Amino acid sequence: MNKRQARYFAIGSTLVATLIFLGLTVDSHRQFPKLTNAQNITPAVTLGKNVWHKNNCINCHTIFGEGAYYAPDLTKIAQQRGAPYLRAFLKDPSKFYDEQRHRRLMPQQDLSDADIDGLIAFLDWVSRVDNQGWPPRPITVTGVGTAAGVAILPQAALAGPSTSVAGSRATDSGKDPVALGERVFRSAAPACTACHSIVAGVDMAGPSLAGIATRTQQTLASPAYKGKATDLEAFIRESVTHPSAHLVTGAMYSADGVSFMPNTYEKDLSAEQLGHLAAYLATFK
Q1: The dihedral sign for the CA sequence 95, 101, 106, 109
Q2: Per-residue pLDDT tens over the stretch 225-273
Q3: Residue 52 DSSP code
Q4: Backbone phi, then psi, for 163, in 5-degree steps?
Q5: How does DSSP classify residue 63?
């Protein structure tokens, strides 16, 4: 190739690369409204964005992976925690965590009710943006023992045919209701793992489910129980579909007689899925 040919090749390559870049840019802008749910940017969302910036939330938190990593990524927090939890938390973070134990240093922002509602609306909008699966896993509030990045499961959860080293069943999952229940536990929207640990003593946004079978028998026998369940499976179903029927004591779990747990699972999960989930949780003695 002589100098003239090399020059033409360089010019042609530059033009082709420029056209490709411009084409991708135009296509990206064409898809932005759909990917970002731009039609759902309401005045409340705009107010919440302003509250987010005014209070420098990004100095500690991240959204879409952008920001500081001192505190959890909040990209999906609205779906993982729900509005009642976020509202109570933003009003008084100190009720949720002991700073000495959890090392939580969330300051009291003294936000108005309107600012809190706006911030929740903003975080809800953020959670619904198509961000290609970010973040890759739910945030946790307290540490969970892990092995190879997978939460260590109690032996009760590992019992049964063919389990992998991570604790999930690799075979017979199509027939084993416990294995199917574990799949529901990890894949429901929002995933149960976003708020519940299955390790004793590790409480997250919801109480640990380790030992739920034993605790349920005690709960059902207690005069303080106000729900309608009469056995373990019915209690688990009730807890999932009507979480406010019986409230677990603790500021992190409810406010004003309403559980922070989402009340959408009754419509989002089928009766069969609820049965599988109950079978799985019943193994935690």
Answers
A1: positive
A2: 989 999 999 999 999 999 999 988 766 788 888 888 888 899 999 999 9
A3: H
A4: -115, 150
A5: E
- Is residue 150 within 8 Å of 156, Cβ to Cβ? no
Rounded-to-integer distance, Cα 252 and Cα 94, Å: 10
First-residue to last-residue Cα distance in the chain:
77
Q: In which residue are the tokens 């997978």 written?
A: 150
Dihedral over alpha carbons 221, 226, 227, 231 (to 10 degrees): 0
Residue 63: strand pairing partners: 66
pTM score over 0.85 = no
**1 near 9, Cβ under 8 Å?**
yes
The DSSP result for 5-28, as a single string, is HHHHHHHHHHHHHHHHHHHHHHHH
- In terms of Cβ atoms closer than 10 Å to its own Cβ (0-12, 13-18, 19+), residue 83 is middle
Q: What count of other Cβ atoms lies within 10 Å of the Cβ of residue 243? A: 21
State the amino acid at position 252 in one-letter form: M
Domain architecture of the chain: domains with CATH: 38-127 (1.10.760.10), 146-281 (1.10.760.10)
d(CA 161, CA 175): 11
